[in-house]
Amino acid sequence: MKVETVIQDQLNKLLEVKTDDQFTVESVYYRGDTLCVSTQLGCPVRCSFCASGMKGLIRNLTADEIISQYEIAVADGFEIKNMAFAGIGEPLLNWENVKNAFWYFKEKGLKCSFYTTGFPAKNLKELLSLPHNGVNISFHSVYDEKRKQIIPRGEKLQNIIQTLKEHLSKLSKRKKKLYNIAYLLISGVNDSPQELEELAKISKELGIGVSLLKYNEIEGLPYKTTTDQEYEKAFLFLKEKGVRVTLSNRYRTRKIGGCGTLMVNRMND
Q1: Any idea what the Cα angle at residue 15 is, between residues 10 and 21, rounded to 5°?
Q2: Is position 16 within any domain?
Q3: Tell me, what's the pLDDT at 122?
Q4: Residue 45 structural domain
């Protein structure tokens, strides 16, 4: 593998690494110390708001290909302290390779966090037990029917919630701070007071926070971002309900840093 190009904006750097079979693997460097790595070429989950998985899964990345994203970035002079399994792909659907890469990064003394849809739940259960530094589980709706439209291949919410309940019941309040519900706020889709009320209820029952993400619009997809006022209103609504809620940081609101905005993997002609 080798670095093909590095695309930059003011806050993030998009690293494109070419595989031996001429596919492009994308990772994002941000905050001056964090590398967000991809785990698959394309994605089988096919979230309907997401550019990354528009064409489905091409193939899983090997553990070496996941690790190489880090090694090449370090060789190019990037200082890395944190690894985020949050690029293209569902980590739990390439679980053995992701686990091998995880243990490699831990041996390097790196902090590792995960973003996942929670599918399949049996692998989510194993992930939760790892010595990770944070797990964000994508809900994007609290209603199964609507969630299936947003995340066509996702675990049923009750299975995710039950898995979380079993794991979190053993943890202290301090340890629970490592866990968040990721909720991508999409205008007119999942931002009603009724749905946010149910989200607050689930969050408080589990004792974990909500990472409230702002949708970055993608050309060709039907979804619209919320206005800044609507986004702040949803944030304050959850906060007033007693939820530990955070907004998208400035890195995730950039064109090359937002949820679902990495380009579809492609093979050169």
Answers
A1: 160
A2: yes
A3: 96
A4: 2-247
Q: What is the pLDDT of residue 8?
A: 57
Q: For the chain, what is the domain count?
A: 1
How is residue 206 written in tokens? 């589990």
- How buried is 158 (Cβ within 10 angstroms: 0-12 exposed, 13-18 middle, 19+ buried)? exposed
* pLDDT tens digits for range 121-133: 999 999 999 999 9
- State which H helix or E strand residue 166 sits in: helix 157-168
CATH number at residue 186: 3.20.20.70
Q: How far apart are CA 199 and CA 202, in angstroms?
A: 5
For 185, the 3-state DSSP assignment is strand
The pLDDT assigned to 124 comes to 98
Question: Whose structure tokens read 């941000």?
Answer: 30
3-state SS class at 214: strand
- Give CA torsion, residues 90, 114, 121, 258, to 10 deg: -50
Q: For 78-95, how does the pLDDT look when each residue is reduced to its tens digit (9 = 90+)? A: 999 999 999 999 999 999
The token duo for 178 is 């490592």
Report yes or no: 19 and 2 within 8 Å, Cβ to Cβ.
no
Q: Give the DSSP H/E element, type plus range, for residue 60.
A: strand 57-60
Q: Which residues pair with 41 in a beta bridge?
A: 59
**Can you list the residues of the chain whose pLDDT is less than 70?**
1-11, 249-269
First to last CA, the chain: 18
Contacts of 37 (CB under 8 A, 6+ apart): 27, 66, 69, 70, 83, 84, 85, 86, 87, 101
For residue 14, what pLDDT is reported?
83
DSSP structure class, residue 217: P
pTM of the model: 0.89
